[in-house]
Amino acid sequence: RSYTGSLNAGFSQATGNSRLRNVSVLGDFVARSEQLRLSLLGRYVYGDNAGSLITRNARGTIKLDFFITKRLFWFASAYFENDHFQDLKLRTAISSGPGYQWIERGDFGSIFKDMTFYTEAGLAYFNEDFRVASDQSSFRARVSMKLNWPMFDDRITFYHYNEIFPSVQNASNFYFTMDNGVRLKVIGGLASGFQVTTRYNNQPPAGTTDTDNLYLFTLGYGFDTTRKR
Predict the structure, then answer these.
(1) What is the three-class DSSP state of 86?
(2) What are phi and psi of 178, to 5 degrees?
(3) How many C-beta neighbours within 10 Å does residue 69 have?
């Protein structure tokens, strides 16, 4: 078995003529055995200006993969999201379907030796509870991919992760979320990072925009037991 994960946080505060405060916390964890892989992902972002709320959102996902062969697996996942300024109390997606591990550690050499990449496609029950707008629920497809590329003994890691939920009845109606980032090893498990999160809803509630971009600078701790095996 192997375990990888990280916990990162960012904080900034201004006092005096301006009173601005921003807090962000991100965490991820992956436990892998020969047949099972458990993946957890979480994020919380808060900001206020002189006590007036300017941003508050949170996201959490849990996913279990059962490997049928060395590369082919079946996943079951749950996605939860809250965003005060999207009029969103809770967005929930419960999904299941097949996935394929296209690139595994050790498939290539040199700077590609620790790269991993997989894709997934399945069906999802998609539910949105809003504060003001009418609640919505539907059955949707779910398509996702994840790339993780550590280089130079984890000194630099690039990663990409996305999930898209197109409506089964109308594929032009979809929700999309994507994380792109880089982590830089400082010393030991200590690392700094920069991440851009993009969320797009082509049918947003009235009074909200369809696209949100979040830029995060963080400092945290990561671990990877694979290298000790």
Answers:
(1) helix
(2) -145, 135
(3) 8
